Amino acid sequence: MVFTAAQMQERFLLALSAAAVLATAGHAQPAPQAPAGQAANATVTAAAPKYATKDIERAFAFIDSNKDGKLSREEASGFRGVARHFDEADANKDNTLSREEFHSALNGERSR
Fold first, then answer.
1. Cα gap 62→42, rounded to integer Å
2. Shortest CA distance to 81 belongs to which of 14, 9, 28?
3. 3-class secondary-structure state, position 97
4. pTM of the entire structure?
5. Average pLDDT in the 4-9 region?
6. What is the C-alpha separation between 86 and 13, in angstroms, rounded?
7. Which H or E run contains 87?
Protein backbone atom coordinates (compact mmCIF):
# COMPACT_ATOMS: atom_id res chain seq x y z
CA MET A 1 0.00 0.00 0.00
CA VAL A 2 1.40 3.40 -0.94
CA PHE A 3 0.55 6.49 1.11
CA THR A 4 0.72 10.13 0.14
CA ALA A 5 2.77 12.48 2.29
CA ALA A 6 -0.42 13.90 3.81
CA GLN A 7 -1.70 10.40 4.69
CA MET A 8 1.63 9.48 6.27
CA GLN A 9 1.64 12.67 8.32
CA GLU A 10 -1.94 12.03 9.47
CA ARG A 11 -1.10 8.45 10.48
CA PHE A 12 2.07 9.53 12.23
CA LEU A 13 0.25 12.22 14.23
CA LEU A 14 -2.45 9.74 15.16
CA ALA A 15 0.14 7.26 16.41
CA LEU A 16 1.86 10.00 18.40
CA SER A 17 -1.47 10.90 19.94
CA ALA A 18 -1.94 7.26 20.92
CA ALA A 19 1.48 7.22 22.53
CA ALA A 20 0.69 10.35 24.50
CA VAL A 21 -2.50 8.82 25.83
CA LEU A 22 -0.72 5.61 26.78
CA ALA A 23 1.73 7.76 28.71
CA THR A 24 -1.11 8.92 30.95
CA ALA A 25 -2.93 5.56 31.13
CA GLY A 26 -2.91 3.99 34.52
CA HIS A 27 -2.98 7.27 36.38
CA ALA A 28 -6.24 6.98 38.27
CA GLN A 29 -8.59 9.91 38.39
CA PRO A 30 -10.31 10.62 41.71
CA ALA A 31 -13.99 9.69 41.86
CA PRO A 32 -16.29 12.69 41.41
CA GLN A 33 -17.89 13.96 44.61
CA ALA A 34 -21.68 13.93 44.82
CA PRO A 35 -23.20 17.42 44.89
CA ALA A 36 -24.53 18.59 48.25
CA GLY A 37 -27.95 17.17 49.00
CA GLN A 38 -27.46 13.97 46.97
CA ALA A 39 -26.97 10.58 48.57
CA ALA A 40 -23.36 9.55 48.94
CA ASN A 41 -24.14 6.13 47.47
CA ALA A 42 -25.62 7.47 44.22
CA THR A 43 -24.63 5.54 41.11
CA VAL A 44 -21.78 7.18 39.18
CA THR A 45 -22.15 6.95 35.42
CA ALA A 46 -19.24 5.65 33.38
CA ALA A 47 -17.12 8.25 31.62
CA ALA A 48 -17.18 8.34 27.84
CA PRO A 49 -14.15 6.78 26.11
CA LYS A 50 -11.32 9.22 25.45
CA TYR A 51 -10.81 8.01 21.89
CA ALA A 52 -13.15 6.59 19.28
CA THR A 53 -12.60 2.97 18.30
CA LYS A 54 -11.89 3.94 14.68
CA ASP A 55 -9.12 6.31 15.79
CA ILE A 56 -7.57 3.67 18.03
CA GLU A 57 -7.70 1.15 15.17
CA ARG A 58 -5.95 3.60 12.84
CA ALA A 59 -3.19 4.23 15.40
CA PHE A 60 -2.81 0.50 16.05
CA ALA A 61 -2.57 -0.21 12.32
CA PHE A 62 0.11 2.46 11.92
CA ILE A 63 2.25 1.13 14.76
CA ASP A 64 1.74 -2.53 13.70
CA SER A 65 4.37 -2.33 10.97
CA ASN A 66 4.37 -6.06 10.12
CA LYS A 67 0.53 -6.19 10.10
CA ASP A 68 0.32 -9.31 12.29
CA GLY A 69 -2.48 -7.91 14.45
CA LYS A 70 -0.39 -7.34 17.56
CA LEU A 71 2.24 -4.88 18.71
CA SER A 72 5.64 -6.22 19.65
CA ARG A 73 8.12 -4.43 21.90
CA GLU A 74 10.16 -3.68 18.79
CA GLU A 75 7.21 -2.00 17.05
CA ALA A 76 6.35 -0.09 20.24
CA SER A 77 9.95 1.07 20.67
CA GLY A 78 9.42 3.70 17.97
CA PHE A 79 6.72 5.36 20.10
CA ARG A 80 8.04 6.54 23.46
CA GLY A 81 4.70 6.59 25.31
CA VAL A 82 3.72 3.15 24.05
CA ALA A 83 7.15 1.70 24.84
CA ARG A 84 7.24 3.27 28.31
CA HIS A 85 3.84 1.82 29.30
CA PHE A 86 4.08 -1.42 27.35
CA ASP A 87 4.20 -3.63 30.46
CA GLU A 88 1.20 -1.88 32.03
CA ALA A 89 -0.85 -2.29 28.87
CA ASP A 90 0.18 -5.95 28.35
CA ALA A 91 -2.54 -7.37 30.62
CA ASN A 92 -1.90 -11.04 29.80
CA LYS A 93 1.90 -10.63 29.94
CA ASP A 94 2.53 -12.30 26.56
CA ASN A 95 5.02 -9.57 25.51
CA THR A 96 2.69 -8.27 22.80
CA LEU A 97 -0.19 -5.81 22.82
CA SER A 98 -3.42 -7.04 21.31
CA ARG A 99 -5.93 -4.63 19.84
CA GLU A 100 -8.03 -5.05 23.00
CA GLU A 101 -5.10 -4.31 25.31
CA PHE A 102 -4.14 -1.26 23.22
CA HIS A 103 -7.74 -0.02 23.20
CA SER A 104 -8.10 -0.55 26.95
CA ALA A 105 -4.85 1.27 27.68
CA LEU A 106 -5.77 4.25 25.52
CA ASN A 107 -9.18 4.65 27.12
CA GLY A 108 -7.98 4.00 30.66
CA GLU A 109 -9.93 0.75 30.99
CA ARG A 110 -8.91 -2.62 32.31
CA SER A 111 -8.53 -5.33 29.65
CA ARG A 112 -11.37 -7.80 29.67
1. 42
2. 14
3. strand
4. 0.61
5. 68
6. 19
7. helix 86-89
